[in-house]
Design a protein that fits this description.
Order of helices and strands: HHHHHHHHHHHHHHH
Number of domains: 1
Keywords: Membrane, Phosphate transport, Transmembrane, Transmembrane helix, Transport
Strand content: under 5%
Largest sheet: none
Family: Belongs to the inorganic phosphate transporter (PiT) (TC 2.A.20) family.
Number of helices: 15
Pfam families: PHO4
GO molecular function, one term: phosphate transmembrane transporter activity
Shape: globular
Protein name: Phosphate transporter
């Protein structure tokens, strides 16, 4: 292994911590629908996802190159403490959104952190604005829309193809399809998100003069990043799994299969092109598309609205935290130590807050609190009512009551009286 200074070693450890948080933050991307429909047991699902994330980390380095040499200018005087500050901003935002159960983007948290820290330390010359627009912002807007439309079309096609089949006959096929598509999403997640940490570590090694500019990630970097994200995935981000599996829409097996297949195709295509998109946004868009694709199925727009708001805040919020950390870290060794101590304190406080209402594999499928039907939901149900024989739910939450259960039963016809 190359000679590594203490500061670069701290940056590498911090990057692996971020990778770990990325793993449990994004477990829901692959496994939320599979767990919510009962296709796999929760612990089995996260174990399979962890193994495939590790495999996916070794399949490509295109996204890693985008991080290490595309967004941030390697030759603009970027120092390891700048990268350290950027990682701190990303980690804190990841943990805050995890505590709130919001599936925000770990990728954009990382980008925002690196950009914010670089702007404070180096200035605008340290950021490749065109690369940010072309490889981050445009995919951020386009990817969830594309994935959502693909998922909506696939859901409608799936229901149409099986409309005359008995539900029990298709249950096993959908279960197998969900498992296969969830495995594909996990593999795709490894090819995209694990590489982002590889790119950050490689960038730190380049700025420290350990490896040459534009170099591929060394094998030990690939292996360590893959193991970190796999471990985080195995622990399971149960709070976000609950939101994505139960909070956005009520997912049935055909929808889960369609959503995961659409998401996997989008992620794998972006990894091949080197687009460092948000797998969270892609998978969330797919789940929303599957909700709109099922006749009578709707999206809980209040939950979706909070989620989209978190997406919009991720880049600037992580960037603001990282900018403050970069300013403090730039004061010298004591500044770096102060940033580390403050970060540990904040992370500890977030973890302590999460213990007040713990969520794990035993209660992950207990859905969120019921919420009333909104204007959008009511309008969609008017335009696209559920098929005949399917009960209409008068509330969006798990406390929802079927209309068939509350309606007044129709009077029975009186039997004819025959007089002899």
């Amino acid at each position: 292994m190359e000679h590594i200074t203490l500061l670069i070693g701290i940056v590498i450890v911090t990057a692996l911590v971020f990778d770990f948080t990325n793993g449990f933050h994004d477990t829901a991307n692959a496994m939320a629908t599979t767990i919510s429909t009962g296709a796999l047991r929760p612990k089995t699902a996260v174990a399979m996802s962890a193994a495939l994330n590790l495999v996916g980390a070794f399949l490509s380095v295109e996204v890693a190159k985008t991080i290490s040499g595309g967004i941030i200018d390697e030759g603009a005087g970027i120092r390891p403490e700048v990268i350290f500050a950027g990682l701190v901003g990303a980690i804190i935002w990841n943990l805050l959104t995890w505590l709130a159960g919001l599936p925000s983007s770990s990728s954009h948290a990382l980008f925002g952190g690196l950009i914010g820290a670089t702007l404070v330390s180096v200035g605008t010359n340290g950021v490749h604005g065109e690369a940010v627009v072309m490889k981050v912002l445009i995919p951020a807007v386009a990817a969830p829309i594309v994935a959502g439309l693909a998922s909506m079309a696939a859901t409608r096609l799936t229901y149409r193809l099986t409309r005359n089949r008995d539900e029990a006959d298709t249950a096993k096929g959908y279960r197998a399809g969900q498992i296969a598509s969830a495995a594909l999403v996990s593999l795709a997640h490894g090819t995209n998100d694990a590489q982002k940490t590889m790119g950050v570590i490689t960038l730190a090694l380049i700025t420290g003069g350990v490896v040459a500019p534009h170099a591929d990630p060394p094998m030990w970097v690939i292996a360590s990043a893959g193991l970190a994200i796999a471990l985080g995935t195995y622990l399971g981000g149960w709070r976000i799994i609950r939101t994505m599996g139960k909070g956005i829409t009520d997912i049935q097996p055909p929808q889960g299969f369609a959503a995961q297949t659409g998401a996997a195709a989008t992620i794998l295509a972006s990894s091949h092109l080197g687009f460092a998109l948000s797998t969270t946004q892609v998978c969330s868009g797919s789940v929303m598309g599957s909700g709109l694709g099922r006749k009578g199925g709707v999206v809980r727009w209040s939950t979706a609205g909070r989620m989209v708001a978190a997406w919009g805040l991720t880049l600037p919020a992580a960037g603001a935290v990282a900018a403050g950390a970069a300013f403090l870290a730039g004061q010298g060794d004591w500044g770096v130590a102060a940033v580390a101590i403050l970060a540990l304190g904040i992370c500890g406080a977030i973890w302590a807050a999460s213990r007040r209402k713990p969520i794990d594999h035993t209660n992950v499928n207990d859905g969120p609190a019921a919420e009333p039907v909104g204007v959008v939901t009511a309008a969609l149900r008017t335009v696209s009512p559920p098929p005949a024989g399917q009960p209409v739910r008068v509330s969006d939450g798990p406390e929802a009551v079927d209309a068939a259960d509350t309606a007044t039963p129709a009077p029975r016809a009186k039997a004819a009286t025959v007089t002899r």
